[in-house]
Design a protein that fits this description.
The structure is a homodimer of 411-residue chains. Chain A is an alpha+beta fold and 411 residues long. The first copy, chain A, has two domains: 306 residues, 2-Layer Sandwich (BirA Bifunctional Protein, domain 2); 85 residues, 3-Layer(aba) Sandwich (Rossmann fold), CATH 3.40.50. Chain A is built from twelve helices and 21 strands. In chain A, the strands form five sheets. Chain A has a five-stranded mixed beta barrel. In chain A, strands 18-17-19-20-21 form a five-stranded mixed β-sheet. The longest helix of chain A has 21 residues. Chain A starts with 20 loop residues before the first helix and ends with a helix.
């Protein structure tokens, strides 16, 4: 991407009403644009980062047998009436609307009902099970108060995976596989060392659900973390009984603020009961399908990463999800010429700051603000040695690389 | 994709209320699922096809300088009040909803207002222009009657591109470039020979807009086509004046039914006026930005292609957008073994029909119904000659290929 041809510009200040660090930086660096409270557009840089997060999640969910599809935002009322969740007293984050042709609709806040109904068409026998299906889809939630930029919004992208199993045993095997997969995903996203499986309150079919919580000062949750055992307890179930059941000792626990980046639930028969999703078992007997749901919100995760991995100069993206890997600045006529040549070798990996009206100091400040992993400078001085200056955004370590060393990184 | 591990199943019949050929086949073959009238999920096969259509459009729009971003479905009322389109009498396909925090919202039916507002942040000088920005985004339209499956729905994917120019001259250069690009896109999508630039009614800033119409018996439009000149006129502007202006002769025109697959508009100052989007020109004078909009609905296009390129056995996808290129069937023990081996070489290009309980005839019927470009059969008989049977879905031409010839196609 050439900055001279990009419509976004960085800004010196963020809107006064944005209080979170991530929102300030993402707005100032041109990753997002605020339509209204809790509703943000993803500008080109933001979309690239979001898509990289999506792709990592997709690869890992595909690897455990997930089949991807895409459901709709508009959802018919009847399925939600049947499951008992249409009423605003039960689910208070509904956006509802009316059909010109008559009737009410909801904007999906989640898709348990929709997936359960879909499966009535495709599940008839135990031979059809297990089934693992997922989507990346926009959810709408009528939050009374949106906050923390893209960490808590009214419209956001969600990866929701649902499992359909013969029985609890088959379910639990997959459930534990998803736990492992989620930890791997958060590793790849660059927050593995600060993200913990966290026991939270369950439902009718399981004492606990599992959350994945990332340590974060502006997070909304309190967790009690056992660093040695790599697990945590959400405040909501922090009591002597939970400690005993999980074999944890109060003395080893650290009280931390954290932000939820994923959650998984044993749904059991909650939806197969109310929406009548059945199969014929090995003995020809009609049984309800045992379900689970598994969520990660890529846009929320992007906010949490931005929040956690920034410094006083701006964002610091992990390499795997940075919109571009290199921020290339040419200084002087020869430097600019060589920079353009290098850019042409890997335009999809490089931001070329070829702005004529920006001073070098501004360019360096923007490189830091945007959080691009490596800043690469080509000047008359470095070219005299056939080299480039190579700076690591995270560590600030600066070194000289030969042109060939840099070029070999590009391929 | 292995059919034994896929949750979708083909169906012998389509719902009685679906009248269009494309909807019947897409439902029966497991590409889509109907949530309610005019609202369809995209199942794994459908999502792959849709994504391939999206990717072709993306490549071509990127190639002419488009910058991709993603806006939101929830849209604030104020911008639409300012542009004069909030009122249901002006725009009758609104879905509106209420914020729990107070206030009304609309679900974007289109994004002219949103893009115009966004650009107020980024456009200040003629040096910032031109700007070309686009997105693939879900639109919601409260159609009184949804029909023809995914050809006319209440929720659909749209590629909408907007241009922001200094003046009409700069605008028109890009406009004509988009015309060429659209024709190239429809070529790549496999409907180039039946899709025509069609003059339709314009607005305040242009006598005509341009539609791209694909000949299609179940289309909703009537066009008058000059096959020699490769252009058409929409019925709505078919009159002596238009004929004269375009240099067309009534005698050379063919009256056809067609389905709109794209449209482009000169918006002029329609939105920059009402939403006050200005720039300082080369003389330091404040000027309004001259705008254009350019749409293609990938999900609608998928419906039109399915409608146009099917036969009495099912769908017939062009190679570039087929969800998979080969449908591989192994007959007999050795055939199945060899098929699995071949599949492992290119799982992303092949549907392996490894279902144990399906007869060969059913497998062949499903290959035809799904519209996969090439059916490949491996049996004891073909293996005796180290060959596979290779059948073209479109032409029905069948030939034998050596195993190596087929393997070389996979890489």
């Amino acid at each position: 991407m050439k900055l001279s041809q990009s419509f976004t510009k960085t800004m010196k200040t963020a809107p006064a009403d944005e209080t979170s660090v991530s929102a300030k930086y993402l707005l100032r660096a041109g990753y997002i644009y605020k339509e209204m409270a809790g509703v943000y557009d993803f500008l080109p840089l933001g979309m690239r980062t979001l898509e990289k997060i999506v792709q990592i999640i997709r690869e890992e969910i595909d690897a455990i047998g997930g089949e991807e599809l895409r459901m709709t935002g508009l959802q018919p009322k009847d399925a939600w009436v049947a499951s008992g969740r249409w009423n605003d007293d039960v689910l208070d984050v509904w956006f509802k609307t009316k059909l010109n042709a008559g009737g009410e609709l909801g904007l999906a806040t989640t898709h348990e009902e929709a997936f359960t109904r879909l499966m009535k068409t495709f599940i008839s026998s135990y031979k059809d099970l297990p089934i693992y299906v997922y989507q990346f889809q926009t959810k709408f939630r009528n939050e009374l108060r949106a906050k923390s930029g893209i960490m808590r919004t009214r419209e956001f992208l969600m990866k929701d995976l649902y499992s359909f199993s013969e029985n609890r045993e088959q379910h639990e095997e997959f459930y534990e596989l998803v736990v492992k997969t989620y930890l791997k995903i958060f590793d790849r996203l660059g927050i593995g060392d600060s993200t913990f499986r966290t026991f939270a309150s369950g439902g009718s079919f399981s004492k606990y659900s599992d959350e994945f919580q990332t340590l974060c000062d502006s997070g909304e949750d309190i967790i009690y973390l056992d660093r040695d055992k790599n697990i945590a307890i959400n405040e909501e179930v922090y009591n002597p009984e939970t400690l005993a059941q999980l074999g944890l000792n109060e003395k080893n626990l650290e009280k931390c603020k954290a932000a939820e980046v994923g959650n998984i639930f044993t749904l059991g028969y909650r939806y197969s009961d109310t929406l009548d999703l059945c199969f014929n078992d090995r003995d020809g007997k009609r049984q309800k399908v045992f379900m689970g749901s598994y969520g990660i919100g890529p846009s929320r995760v992007m906010g949490v990463i931005a929040e956690r991995l920034s410094d006083n100069k701006g964002l610091i993206w992990p390499e795997e999800i940075a919109p571009y890997k290199y921020y290339l600045v040419g200084i002087g006529e020869e430097g600019a010429k060589k920079a353009a040549e290098l850019y042409a070798k890997a335009p999809d990996n490089i931001i070329l700051d070829d702005r004529i009206n920006a001073r070098t100091g501004e360019k360096f400040a923007d490189a830091d603000l945007m959080g691009i992993p490596y800043r690469v400078v080509v000047s008359d001085k470095t070219l005299a040695e056939e080299k480039v200056e190579f700076k690591n955004r995270k560590t600030s370590e600066t070194k000289l690389l030969t042109l060939n060393e840099f070029i070999s990184k590009l391929s």
